[in-house]
Amino acid sequence: MNSRSTTQEDRRYFINASDFPLGALWIGQSYCSNKYRMIRKRSTATVVMYIAEGEGYVVKNGKSHLVTSDTICIFYANEAHHYYASQQSPWTIIWMNLSGELANTLAKAYGISNEFAFEGKGLKYIFDNIAALVYDDEITNFDCQKTIASSYIKLLMELRNKVHEKNHHPNAVKIKKFLDENTHRLVGNEELAHLVFHSSDYCIKLFKKEYGSTPYDYQLKQKMDIACKMLQQTDTAVFEIASSLGYNDAQYFSGLFKNKCGITPGAYRKKYK
User: Fold this and answer.
1) Are 118 and 69 in contact (CB under 8 A)?
2) 9 class by beta-carbon count within 10 Å (0-12 exposed, 13-18 middle, 19+ buried)
3) Sign of the C-alpha dihedral, residues 192, 196, 201, 204?
4) Residue 223's domain is classified under what CATH number?
5) Alpha-carbon span 85 to 93, nearest angstrom
6) For 147-176, what is each residue's pLDDT tens digit?
């Protein structure tokens, strides 16, 4: 590891990181000079870094990539790490170094491990909470580890959502979120049209282009997936399941379920519960 000077670095070290599947080795906040540079030929830690102010560069495959304030970078364990502050506006960074393979495994599970830089709008609070641990002498190392682990998982969830939003049309994302949050009732195309200030035909075509199905088919699949889980994992009556998904007619719901899943709700419960 090669690290060159920073103007000031406040950090906290945890001797017990290896006690946890997802443990923090170090956390800190660095107020960097324009001479700051970090090089690790093969890092044993996953480094999560938030650029609070200024800018710097990340070197990937021999090419330097500019990263600016309000950006989150993740450098994974067992890879080379190379990043440095800019000459004109050296960055201030908040960071955490995580031990073990679980940090990498979780990033892969959340589908973000192919990227290293993420737009951090709205996520600064996560890193402010990490930075606060550096200066809190009263909090135990164990409680710090709990906060850091939960913060990392929360961050991965937020970044997965950002990657999804980046890869899809904003109106399609808005429709999908609305459908996901309203599985307890039936949402019609006119309501979706009002949501995005476009026609129903626009909503149907856009959603199908982005997600491969119409809003109705997507909504129906979500409802049937929920129904399957409730049939497998609870004793809730079929008519109550139907009602919780916005179907007041249990017989109609059963017909939809059989059409989608191949068997009736009762038969499904007997087979899979």
Assistant:
1) no
2) middle
3) negative
4) 1.10.10.60
5) 10
6) 999 999 999 999 999 999 889 999 999 999
Q: Which positions ≥6 away from 143 have C-beta within 8 Å?
A: none
The token duo for 121 is 């709008």
Token pair listed for 78: 């067992």
Taking the whole predicted model, whether its pTM rises above 0.85 is answered as no
Q: Which of 110, 108, 51, 46 is nearest to 79 (CA)?
A: 46
CA dihedral 63, 69, 71, 77 (to 10 degrees): 60
- Identify the three-state secondary structure at position 124: helix
Question: Per the structure block, which two tokens stand in for 191?
Answer: 């309501």
User: How far is C-alpha 54 from the geometric centre of its chain's CA atoms?
Assistant: 25
Domain final position from 135, 167, 199: 167
Indicate whether 153 and 124 sit together in one domain. yes
CATH number at residue 142: 2.60.120.280
138 & 216 share domain: no
pLDDT in tens, 2-42: 555 657 899 999 998 888 999 999 999 999 999 999 999 99
| Domain boundary pick from 124, 147, 167 | 167
The secondary element (H helix, E strand) that includes residue 25 is strand 23-31
Separation of alpha carbons 202 and 218, rounded Å: 16
